[in-house]
Design brief:
The complex is a heterodimer of chains A (about 180) and B (about 210). Chain A has eight helices and no strands. Chain A is mainly α and about 180 residues long. The chains are: A mainly alpha (about 180), B alpha+beta (about 210).
């Protein structure tokens, strides 16, 4: 049911003081915000602070969100980025680029782009049906082969392949603008 | 951390045009990597109370780094742990209840240094989730940033995460979690310690029954 409500609708409802909408929005975005913050700040404690500051800002500023100016995800991403940057400044230390960052020739624009793409990937994956999400997570983030996944989940290998292909195709649809 | 999946293995028989599109998604997944697990304090949120309506203060935000002792109700601890051990090891016929769930199965957890625990799993709900009450005892408090992970396991290795927690002392803790996976695909549970510095997981409690 939750997935039927767009991010923009949720933010608008939060702007009207809807606590349930806030909770749904938090559950959708806490992990992507945390991932973004951890990547940029390189410290779990500071990243957790940034998550809280992000959602505090969302609660305060959601009333200023205007759906006609764009969907909710980029708006929330901008709020999160501001909170992360503010957190870095507040500590009087330059933000640390996490271990995932490539050294040297990567510009701030590159890092911002990479952060946005990772954000979109994580959010899109969370939108997949459970049976497709699980096989993709096991393949990509647990290093399991298709055969191992079939054995783990107790389903035929062909089903694993079908679910993987379907999940990837669904992700391609959702991520069309960044492909 | 883990081996990169072979794209060819994933998309056998896909038409060339579609294959190109999926290849890009494959690359994005590899580049993005897994999102980090939320700490116990961040994993739950309490919506703002009525008193927050006017000033829109953020006092309702989840308490950060307070330890699991503040996350879950202490009142359930003794009763759940005692009941868990009454039915532990033999499985349940579904007649016992614990913490408001009807227990479908039980798995005791063993560990080193006197640490122990139990997993009580309820009946699968209409949404396909298995409610779980996990009780642990004797686990060491961890350094800031580290935490424990409860995972379903296969051959003793963690496969999918059910939840995370911390402890402020070695006392007993009871945690409510949920598994959305078909338990038939696993053969036990394992609790691991996540080291934030090394990004490594070390098993501290384990079972052989799921």
């Amino acid at each position: 049911m939750q997935s039927e409500i767009t991010d923009g609708e949720l933010i608008s409802r939060v702007g009207s003081g809807d606590r349930n909408a806030f909770e749904v929005l938090y559950r959708r975005y806490a992990r992507p915000v945390f991932g973004l913050a951890l990547r940029r700040l390189g410290d779990r404690g500071r990243a957790e602070d940034a998550v809280q500051e992000t959602f505090a800002s969302v609660w305060r500023a959601a009333g200023s969100y205007r759906p006609e100016r764009g969907p909710g995800a980029p708006w929330l991403y901008a709020v999160a980025r501001n909170a992360i940057v503010d957190n870095g400044r507040a500590r009087r230390e330059p933000p640390v680029e996490g271990v995932e960052e490539k050294a040297g020739d990567e510009t701030p624009a590159d890092r911002a782009e990479a952060g946005w793409v990772a954000w979109r990937v994580h959010r899109s994956l969370a939108e997949l049906p459970e049976n497709e999400r699980v096989v993709i997570e096991l393949a990509y983030w647990r290093g399991r082969s298709q055969s191992e996944i079939a054995e783990l989940l107790g389903i035929p290998l062909g089903t694993v392949k079908t679910r993987t292909r379907t999940g990837l195709a669904r992700l391609a649809d959702m991520l069309g603008d960044v492909l | 951390m883990t081996r990169r999946p072979e794209f060819d293995e994933l998309v056998e028989g896909v038409e060339p045009e579609e294959r190109e599109r999926l290849q890009r998604v494959h690359e994005l997944l590899v580049e993005a990597g897994p999102p980090p697990e939320l700490s116990p304090a961040l994993a739950s949120v309490t919506p703002p109370s009525d008193t927050d309506e006017d000033d829109r203060e953020a006092s309702w935000l989840p308490p950060r780094r307070l330890g699991a002792g503040l996350v879950f109700a202490a009142a359930l601890l003794a009763a759940t742990f005692g009941l868990g051990y009454l039915v532990g090891g033999s499985g349940s016929d579904g007649q016992e209840t614990s913490g408001g769930i009807r227990i479908a199965r039980t798995a005791p957890l063993t560990g080193q240094g006197g640490a122990s625990g139990i997993v009580n799993v309820g009946q699968r709900d209409a949404d396909g989730n298995w409610p779980m009450i996990v009780t642990v005892r004797g686990l060491a408090p961890l350094a800031q940033g580290d935490y424990y992970i409860v995972a379903l396991a296969k051959e003793g290795k963690p496969v999918v995460t059910c939840g995370t927690f911390n402890v402020a002392d070695r006392g007993q803790r009871t945690l409510r979690m949920s598994a959305a996976y078909d338990l038939k695909g696993f053969d036990g549970w394992v609790v691991t310690r996540w080291d934030a510095k090394t990004h490594g997981e070390t098993p501290v409690l384990w079972s052989r029954r799921a």
